[in-house]
Backbone:
């Protein structure tokens, strides 16, 4: 590694941390969420020019608040864990940028159809704040010229993120922190270190999943334990019913043997 490269890497690391990555990606997710909410307010048909301009703006969102920081994380060996909705949106935008059949109409339709929240996840439910800078979706962007900044420094984006979380400080405590990998000049060793960290992460996820399953199993067993007494009572009632029926049948048979064949001994049974 050259001295110049080392200097560049140290400079980037000093300006950008793992926590910055987590907060910036959450900020980007919040922006895409409010954009989707605003889009869903209007069920009417959107013109082709509206769709084209809308797509240009959401691509701008990804290029300002997501793609540069994914690249920084890759260069710094940070395992980027994007929020679920942001992950879906970025896959859609990437398809639009790389697949020839994926035009602006398809991106518009798939973005509109992609749900922006889970009804059970506390972060998803409370992701939107009141004020956003560069809130183009609040205006008739389809009738105005494209007037968004073509470049943003890391410092500028971090200022936007700071203002975002200042509106809801509790949100910052719910943002998951990405994983960083040890750095090595040997490409093969670097890949092995990344794989080791990934296997470790998957092991933790598997352990968490097993604990969840065990908790669910304990709840199911507890529910069955509560049902044990009613089932025993039902079984006893069924045995008593069979005994009563057998007794009545016996009386009935004895009555028929002692009387005329044309007479029913228990006419009301």
Residues:
């Amino acid at each position: 590694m050259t001295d110049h490269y080392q200097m560049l890497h140290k400079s980037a690391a000093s300006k950008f941390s793992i926590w910055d990555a987590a907060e910036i990606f959450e900020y980007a997710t919040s922006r895409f969420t409010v954009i989707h909410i605003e889009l869903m307010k209007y069920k009417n048909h959107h013109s082709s020019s509206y769709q084209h301009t809308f797509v240009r703006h959401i691509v701008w969102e990804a290029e300002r608040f997501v793609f540069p920081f994914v690249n920084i994380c890759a260069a710094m060996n940070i395992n980027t864990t994007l929020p679920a909705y942001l992950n879906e949106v970025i896959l859609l935008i990437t398809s639009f940028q790389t697949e020839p059949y994926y035009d602006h109409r398809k991106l518009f339709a798939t973005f509109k159809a992609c749900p922006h929240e889970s009804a059970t996840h506390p972060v998803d439910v409370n992701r939107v704040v009141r004020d956003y800078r560069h809130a183009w979706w609040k205006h008739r962007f389809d009738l105005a010229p494209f007037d968004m900044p073509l470049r943003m420094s890391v410092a500028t984006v971090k200022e936007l993120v700071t203002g975002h979380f200042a509106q809801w400080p509790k949100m910052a405590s719910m943002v998951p922190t990405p994983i960083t990998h040890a750095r090595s000049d040997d490409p093969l060793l670097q890949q092995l270190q990344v794989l080791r960290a990934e296997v470790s992460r998957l092991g933790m996820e598997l352990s968490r999943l097993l604990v969840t399953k065990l908790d669910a199993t304990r709840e199911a067993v507890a529910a069955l334990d509560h049902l044990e007494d009613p089932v025993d009572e039902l079984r006893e009632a069924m045995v008593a019913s069979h005994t009563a029926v057998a007794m009545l049948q016996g009386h009935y048979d004895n009555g028929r043997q002692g009387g005329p064949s044309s007479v029913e001994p228990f006419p009301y049974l």
Q: What stands out?
A: The mean pLDDT is 78. Residues 182-269 form one domain. Residues 187-258 form the longest helix (72 residues).
